[in-house]
Design goal:
The chain is α+β, with helices and mostly antiparallel strands. The chain has a single domain, classed as OB fold (Dihydrolipoamide Acetyltransferase, E2P), CATH 2.40.50. The chain is 27% helix and 41% strand. The chain is built from two helices and five strands. The longest helix is centred in the first third of the chain and has 22 residues.
Amino acid sequence: MKKALNAFIAAFAMLAAFSLHAADVANGKGTVNKINNDTGSLNISHEAIPALKWPAMTMDIKVADRKILSEAKPGQVISFGLTKDPKVGYVISHIEAVK
């Protein structure tokens, strides 16, 4: 019985950790204006992002992985995920072209 309880507690803890991680991602949609390889960022005009209480605006956002820069094209409409980096604030964790 004790092993079953411990297994349940471990499974619940893993689920809670996954839920917290999933909640740490905010999603946005916008248009890529410029790709800056020097700073590792995209300049994006994005819609409001309610999860972060951000209004619609144009801003430079650093990417979590520089590979993302090669996936983006100026003028492209994208959906993107933002995660919080402890050093630089929110960074783009992934992008996907909107068709």
